[in-house]
Amino acid sequence: MKTKKGAAISIATMVSPVTLWMAFFIAIPLLYVAVMSFCGTDENYNVVFRLTLENYRRLLDPSYLQIYMQSILIAFLTTAFCILLGYPFAFLIARTKSRKKALLYMLVIIPFWTNSLIRIYGWRTFLSASGMLNTLLMKLNLIDTQIDFLYNIGTTVFGMVYCLFPFMILPLYTAIEKLDINLLEASSDLGARGASTFFHIILPLTASGIFSGSIMVFIPALGYFFVADILGGGNSDVIGNLIERQFQSGNNWPLGAALSMILIGITLLLVKLYQKCGGDMESLGV
Amino acid sequence: MVRTQKRKLKKGLGVGYCALIYLFLFLPIAVIITNSFNATTSKPYMTWKGFTFDWYIKLFDNSALLDSFGNTILIAVCSTVLATCIGTLAAVGMYRYRFRGKGVIDALLYIPVVIPEIVLGIALLTLFAKTSIPRGILSLVLAHTTFSIPFVVFNIRARLTGYDNSVEEASMDLGAGKVETFFRITVPILAPAIGGGALLAFTLSIDDVIISYFTNGQTKTFPLKVMESIKSGVSPDVNALSTLILAGTTLLVILTQSNLFKRRK
């Protein structure tokens, strides 16, 4: 006979490993970061537990405020470009009748098996003043002096789009693939033109893909410090660079913790907004 | 006539557009492969000095680089095994039973998926520093397992929807115990989803930069080795190793491709 106790034991054996793991490696560390953001440091940069708002006061430093705005601008532009470039692309590969559809999908993922740092470095090599693009343009006589494409907000956005592009494509692909062809035919049978069908049928039905893609692109873009380092050359830092500096060279962990609280805040806000728009958390995972 | 021409033009534009996007995705990889054959010996190794295979031979003398690659594989294997075991149990347990606190576990699982990696990286760093867990292979395995678990759970959960309990019940009615049923019925049925989750965990682990960067101590993984060398210019032997890794993974996928595509549907 099945007993309640039996079920309880099953639940305990199956669910307790994940519970303990997530509690110890997610919940506790994040709470600790929250606590640390209210702490100070001694002269040797050790964390000292005394309640202070000093770190939060320092967050309002004008040079920091400028970087928050810059970081949000970079994340926004990255998301916008990912949607604009990615939507038509995802549409084409999701609705192709070609037998190579599975291959076309795989080709989006394959580049991501090569480490992202070295691919970003590949772009730097390609775009640098003595790099292949300049050599090519000079050979074609399109330019006569080397152009430095690197080290500005533009290249940082470019690198971010490159790194985060598949996170936009995959949810878009899923949403577009689910579109019912009958609806599109019905719309055109009833006399709607292409643009009208797109704005009244296709776009609303695939909006979920745009929303989850945007979450998966915008939030990481605030933290990808290595892209800003390699392609931005220190001229286009994001919030991630500020945090990285405090935990590596700067050695002011409480200040770094307070800066991290900004990212946690933005993440919570955007996820709430996403859920308000009817977004499904599950579709962010896979 | 005009209509078919118009349609052809549309199709051509579409193909051209997709080709441009694929060029965008693959161009840096072409740069990496090209540079792995670059005969240059002066930093920052960016100008083309002719073709050579030397770097593929020199690669095997660079023990620091090979060690970092060994670490990457070791950490990926350990964290994948851990995350897959914990994640599979969790996904099945959470699907099958209703219990108090389930929402909390769910929320904790979403955190690594949505939060910027740097936040998780520094949070784990502070934990390891506070609890004196040695920073090295161990801390890296723990960190990688942490961000992999949710992806394994969600991957399996997605395929549990519409899962038929009756086979399990039949197994129990015929006298098999719960543990036996789990290993001989549930796991084989879910094998494709578990495999997919494990593959995802492995991929995330070998490519991870940010979280490893904060939790590594003195240990270098391959991505961290790349990061270190970026300041002085990535030498072509790093490109050679990347090329070999890419060739290896691509081959692996081609060999297992038929399975992979069946799983997708």
Pick out its properties.
A: 286 residues; mainly alpha; two-stranded antiparallel sheet; globular; B: 265 residues; 78% helix; disordered C terminus
In short:
The complex is a heterodimer of chains A (286) and B (265). Chain A is built from 13 helices and 2 strands, in the order αββαααααααααααα.
Can you walk me through this structure?
The complex is a heterodimer of chains A (286) and B (265). Chain A is 73% helix and 1% strand. Chain A is mainly α and 286 residues long. Chain A has one domain: Orthogonal Bundle (MetI-like fold), CATH 1.10.3720.10. Chain A is globular, with a radius of gyration of 24 Å. Chain B is mostly helical. Chain B has a single domain, classed as MetI-like (MetI-like fold), CATH 1.10.3720. Helix content of chain B is 78%, strand content 0%. Chain B is globular. Chains A and B meet through helix 1, helix 3, helix 4, helix 5 and helix 9 of A and helix 1, helix 3, helix 4, helix 5 and helix 6 of B.
In CATH terms, what is the architecture of chain B? Orthogonal Bundle
Share of helix of chain A, binned? over 70%
CATH architecture of chain A: Orthogonal Bundle
Given helix and strand content, the structural type of chain A is mainly alpha
What Rg of chain A do the Cα atoms give? 24 Å
Average pLDDT metric of chain A:
87
Question: Strands of the largest sheet of chain A, in order across it?
Answer: 1-2
How many angstroms separate the termini of chain A? 39 Å
Helix-strand makeup class of chain B: mainly alpha
Overall form of chain B: globular
Proportion of residues in extended strands of chain A: under 5%
